[in-house]
Amino acid sequence: MDAVIVENLTKRFGTVRAVDSVSFRLPAGTTCGLLGGNGAGKTTTISMLLGILAPDAGSIEVLGHDMARDRFAALARMNYSSPYVALPMRLTVSENLRVYGHLYNVPRLENRIRELARDFDLEGLLSRKAGALSAGQKTRVALAKSLINRPSLLLLDEPTASLDPDTADYVRGVLERYRDETGAAILLASHNMAEVERLCSQVLMMKGGRIVDRGTPGDLITRYGRDDLEQVFLAIARNPETLPP
User: Fold this and answer.
1) Domain co-membership, 157 together with 238
2) Rounded to two decimals, what is the model's pTM?
3) Same structural domain, 127 and 22
């Protein structure tokens, strides 16, 4: 079953096509990497999947719901995390999680908060205000928030930004276990190519608002004759003539 079906998605800002006729499918239980340089269209695509922006053309189906007609039913089963979106700074970590839990009508909410605090090593931070946290701690709280409602679709923007290598590796393991245990689909925008190679079974390469190539990390590395996904990324970003026919 496909958790996400995107067909010919287009978004314009004035004369600029930020997203240009993008189509893809994201099966349940898989992680897909959405890669591209700054301005490639990744954030705009995610914003349309979240219903924050309305597309100028094309369609989005999320968890069986048409986002143009029934987005609130889909949003109840989705969540999102980005280190660039601040949580309420004057609330404590536990208060933040409680607020979002109530928004999603999470049953047995206090138990869920304790589970997430354990999973993301937040037990010693629950009474601390979000504004007093380090960048890495804020990232972990944002990830905990993104799992509060046990989403069937998880949209992640740079999920391990500001984390030290040990914590980042641990968090990737938490995300992998969550996906495998629940069958959730994950769409991951990241500039960490090693992270994408580990987590993603499929990669969409964006440039200039379009998907210019796609495949498994291994397939892309082989197709471009490179040693790793970072070299593939650089080949596409720096020289469009390297794109295969």
Assistant:
1) yes
2) 0.94
3) no
- 198 exposed, middle or buried (CB, 10 Å; 0-12, 13-18, 19+)? middle
What pairs with residue 32 in β-bridges? 187, 202
Report how many domains make up the chain: 2
Query: What tokens appear for 135 in the block?
Result: 């960048």
149, pLDDT greater than 60: yes
Asked if residue 82 is part of any domain, the answer here is no
H-only helix segments in the chain:
42-49, 71-75, 93-103, 109-119, 135-146, 165-182, 193-199, 217-224, 229-238
The reported pLDDT for the residue numbered 162 is: 87
Give which of 62, 40, 45 is closest to 9, Cα–Cα. 45
One DSSP character per residue, 96-141 reads HHHHHHHHTT-TTHHHHHHHHHHHTT-TTTTTSBGGGS-HHHHHHH
Distance CA 170, CA 121 (A): 10
**CA distances, 52 to each of 43, 46, 68, 192 (Å):** 11, 9, 11, 25
Amino acid at 131: G
**More confidently predicted of 86 and 151:** 151
Q: Are residues 138 and 216 in the same domain?
A: no
Write out pLDDT tens, residues 27-66: 999 999 999 988 899 999 999 999 999 999 999 999 999 9
Does 47 share its domain with 166? yes
Mean pLDDT over the full length of the chain: 94
